[in-house]
């Protein structure tokens, strides 16, 4: 699949510009296992459309050689695949128990009222999609707000959140608390599709906050370290690492089974791969 | 806020968190200056079987919640079977309260990559995947950057450091499904399907990714490996307890003065951790807490001296889980908290099995009724009965996790429920939300 040219039907042709990246994604996975590329491919179609449209479903199905129902079943399972057009920025407020208790629900409610939209809805100017999110794995900064999934406001208040969305709507600069510099939601999807960050300096953005460093800072301030760490501690060995210098360490390779080749049980990508295990 | 005493601070064991203090440790040059990739060189000089034995000797247990012995898991991979082997790292951090893997991958991504290379060499895998939660975009950015840096330096790719060992490492972003933290659902998701759990056996060690032998390990587990290779099992066991060895990152959140990440030897108590964190927030008294995320039975103030290791927490009737300690006070309502957790489980239930899919649907509605001031005494029996029919009868641990806060709050805080039902506590939700709920 990955080394052949894909002929798109009119249903998917609108996304033909994504083909080179799609083939690059498929090439990451073992031969015969191209279906593994489906999640990143769905992220990829969102870089163009901002959501997974019927065109996006057709595109994924055609490049993988599976049917649209198989793609649709996956696309509708995962929260991050949006089913309607999204705004330029996705603002998520954690309202799971801990953030909720510490004020996250109030942040969400006031943002919702200020923007005039509810969960998974987009403002009329197309700038902001609002959602309440489940635990975003930053409980030590609760309540948290993210923009395009990058941590934007820690220990959020309704005022801080309203101030930030107003800036985003007016095109003013917003500096996220711990994430990379803000881009559009579509641009960010490129990360999720597994491509390198194209923006200079964005990988370096975002310093660790005080809560992350609390324990290790206390240890440093009080001169506390784990004693007796000797990186040269020998490893007990019972056999030589390799039989000879040219012999690969991998016995499968030594036995003549080339690595990184399709599995002996390789089957075409499709439902059968998962089902055979599930029975 | 109170100052922690010296003898409490001495319980800190900065190992996995140590490099976080160096703001540029995510760059390979800085990582290398801080002992980085020294463990890999050392590991490639010994036979893979000796590495598996080393990890067994260290007593390392999985950091993702279940605490399974890591060396034993690696040893289950059949060798010389002619099949490709895979290492899959579970970086789908999403258990409510858990926030230790994201900082590790963001501020010290190479430690995970180095651990992944060593683990792959030990189990003889030539391809490894890091399945990272979709929402963790900045951590994924740093990880992908680190993978490219490691490739350029010859730590990944073909003939790594002249050893003849080849490894390709792929960072694969999920798409927002909590269930994918369950290892077999994660494998289905990685194969391009809906993330739904598989029936076991066969276990992933025999038929995992692409029906091939696969080790699935948590981020913290794999990131621990380079330190064990360097310092040795005896040093590793100098931290923690006899059966729960090594350091653990305790994630403290909620009603305490200084929430954050505190790395200590396994077996520390909540009382000690709260002291380390500067005490409770002024005006707050401990009421209930999760030892390891919302899927572990809640504990109360009476459990404050429970040793936080696998055995100690189990003896108190809960689970160590991910050591995500969400701390709630007498100003927080256990009924409301449980309702909000259930909304989460209801949303995240994958729909594969009936107890979890239907049970959570109904429990959420029962909670809404109680919190709207419309509850009845029989609702409590219904909740208990529903939870009992979910727990142990669901396809995977998600159902058990959902039943857990229900059962534990009914056990410890029945009076809080009665106060809503009998009108002593003002309703928290509007009765309008109940339309169609009966």
UniProtKB/TrEMBL annotation, chain A:
Write down the superkingdom of origin: Bacteria
Report a single Gene Ontology molecular function: oxidoreductase activity
Q: Which cofactor does it need?
A: [2Fe-2S] cluster
Q: What class of enzyme is it?
A: oxidoreductase
Give me the ranges of the annotated region Disordered. 228-279
EC number(s) from the headed UniProt entry: 1.6.5.11
Q: Does the keyword DNA repair apply?
A: no
InterPro entries, A to Z:
NuoE-like, NuoE_dom, NuoE_N, Thioredoxin-like_sf
UniProt KW S-adenosyl-L-methionine keyword:
no
Q: Which keywords does this chain's UniProt record carry? A: 2Fe-2S, Iron, Iron-sulfur, Metal-binding, Oxidoreductase
Family of the protein in this entry? Belongs to the complex I 24 kDa subunit family.
Protein name per UniProt? NADH-quinone oxidoreductase subunit NuoE
Q: Which organism is it from?
A: Paractinoplanes bogorensis
Automatic annotation (TrEMBL), chain B:
Q: Which InterPro entries match?
A: NADH-UbQ_OxRdtase_51kDa_CS, NADH-UbQ_OxRdtase_suF, Nuo51_FMN-bd, Nuo51_FMN-bd_sf, Nuop51_4Fe4S-bd, Nuop51_4Fe4S-bd_sf, Soluble_ligand-bd
- State the EC number(s): 7.1.1.-
Q: Does the keyword Protein biosynthesis apply?
A: no
PROSITE patterns tied to this protein: COMPLEX1_51K_1 (PS00644), COMPLEX1_51K_2 (PS00645)
Q: Which cofactor does it need?
A: [4Fe-4S] cluster; FMN
Return the similarity comment. Answer: Belongs to the complex I 51 kDa subunit family.
Give the function comment from the record. Answer: NDH-1 shuttles electrons from NADH, via FMN and iron-sulfur (Fe-S) centers, to quinones in the respiratory chain.
Q: Which GO terms describe its molecular function?
A: oxidoreductase activity
Keyword terms of this UniProt record:
4Fe-4S, Flavoprotein, FMN, Iron, Iron-sulfur, Metal-binding, NAD, Oxidoreductase, Quinone, Translocase
Q: What class of enzyme is it?
A: translocase
The record places domain NADH-ubiquinone oxidoreductase 51kDa subunit iron-sulphur binding at 335-380
Name of the protein in question: NADH-quinone oxidoreductase subunit F
UniProt source species? Paractinoplanes bogorensis
Catalytic activity annotation: a quinone + NADH + 5 H(+)(in) = a quinol + NAD(+) + 4 H(+)(out)
């Amino acid at each position: 699949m990955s080394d052949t040219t894909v002929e798109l039907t009119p249903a998917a042709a609108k996304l033909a510009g994504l083909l080179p990246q799609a083939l690059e994604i498929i090439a990451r996975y073992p031969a015969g296992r191209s279906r593994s590329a489906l999640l990143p491919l769905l992220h990829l179609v969102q870089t163009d459309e901002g959501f997974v449209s019927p065109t996006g479903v057709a595109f994924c199905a055609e490049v993988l050689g599976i049917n649209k129902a198989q793609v649709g079943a996956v696309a509708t399972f995962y929260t991050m695949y949006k089913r309607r057009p999204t705004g330029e920025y996705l603002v998520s407020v954690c309202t799971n128990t801990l953030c909720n208790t510490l004020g996250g629900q109030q942040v969400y409610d006031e943002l919702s009222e200020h923007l005039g939209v509810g969960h998974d809805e987009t403002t009329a100017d197309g700038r902001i999609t609002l959602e309440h999110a489940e635990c975003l794995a930053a409980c030590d900064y609760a309540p948290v707000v993210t923009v395009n999934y990058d941590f934007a406001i820690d220990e959020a208040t309704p005022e801080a959140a309203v101030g930030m969305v107003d800036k985003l709507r007016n095109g003013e600069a917003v500096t996220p608390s711990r994430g990379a510099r803000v881009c559009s939601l579509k641009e960010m999807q490129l990360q999720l599709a597994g491509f390198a960050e194209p923006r200079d300096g964005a990988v370096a953005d975002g310093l660790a906050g005080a809560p992350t460093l609390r324990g290790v800072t206390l240890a440093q301030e009080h001169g506390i370290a784990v004693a007796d760490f000797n990186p040269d501690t020998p490893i007990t060995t019972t056999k030589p690492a390799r039989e000879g210098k040219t012999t690969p360490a991998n016995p499968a390779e030594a036995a003549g089974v080339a690595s990184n080749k399709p599995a002996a049980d390789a089957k075409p990508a499709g439902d059968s791969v998962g089902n055979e295990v599930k029975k | 806020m109170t100052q922690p005493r010296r003898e409490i601070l001495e319980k800190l064991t900065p190992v996995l968190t140590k490099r976080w203090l160096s703001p540029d440790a995510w760059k390979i040059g800085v990582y290398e200056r801080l002992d980085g990739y020294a463990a890999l060189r050392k590991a490639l000089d010994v036979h893979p079987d000796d590495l598996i034995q080393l990890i067994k000797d260290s007593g390392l247990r999985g950091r993702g919640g279940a605490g399974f012995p890591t060396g034993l898991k690696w040893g289950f991979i059949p060798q010389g079977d002619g099949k490709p082997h895979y290492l899959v790292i579970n970086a789908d951090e999403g258990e409510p309260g858990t926030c230790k893997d994201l900082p590790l991958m963001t501020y010290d991504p190479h430690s995970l990559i180095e651990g992944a290379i060593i683990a792959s060499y030990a189990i003889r895998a030539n391809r490894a995947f890091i399945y990272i939660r979709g929402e963790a975009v900045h951590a994924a950015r740093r990880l992908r950057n680190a993978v490219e840096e490691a490739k350029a330096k010859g730590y990944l790719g073909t003939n790594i450091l002249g050893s003849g060992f080849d490894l390709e490492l792929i960072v694969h972003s999920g798409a927002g499904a909590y269930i994918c933290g369950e290892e077999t659902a994660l494998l289905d998701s990685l194969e391009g399907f809906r993330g739904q759990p598989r029936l076991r056996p066969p276990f992933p060690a025999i038929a995992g990714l692409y029906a091939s032998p696969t080790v699935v390990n948590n981020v913290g587990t794999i990131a621990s490996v380079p330190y064990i290779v360097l310092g040795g099992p005896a040093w590793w066991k100098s931290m923690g307890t006899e059966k729960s060895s090594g350091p653990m990152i305790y994630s403290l959140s909620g009603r305490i003065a200084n929430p954050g990440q505190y790395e200590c030897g396994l077996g520390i108590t909540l009382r000690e951790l709260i002291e380390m964190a500067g005490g409770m927030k002024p005006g707050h008294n401990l009421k209930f807490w999760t030892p390891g995320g919302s899927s572990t039975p809640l504990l109360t103030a009476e459990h404050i001296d429970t040793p936080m290791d696998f055995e100690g927490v189990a003896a108190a009737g809960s689970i160590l889980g991910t050591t995500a300690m969400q701390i709630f006070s007498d100003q927080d309502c256990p009924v409301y908290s449980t309702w909000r957790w259930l909304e989460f489980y209801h949303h995240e239930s994958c729909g594969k099995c009936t107890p979890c899919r239907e049970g959570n649907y109904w429990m959420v509605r029962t909670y809404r009724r109680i919190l709207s001031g419309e509850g009845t005494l029989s609702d409590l029996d219904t909740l208990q009965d529903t939870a009992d029919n979910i727990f142990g009868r669901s396809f995977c641990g998600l159902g058990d996790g959902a039943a857990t806060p229900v059962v534990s709050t009914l056990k410890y805080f029945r009076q809080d429920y009665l106060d809503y039902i009998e009108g002593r506590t003002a309703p928290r939700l509007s009765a309008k939300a109940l339309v169609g709920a009966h």
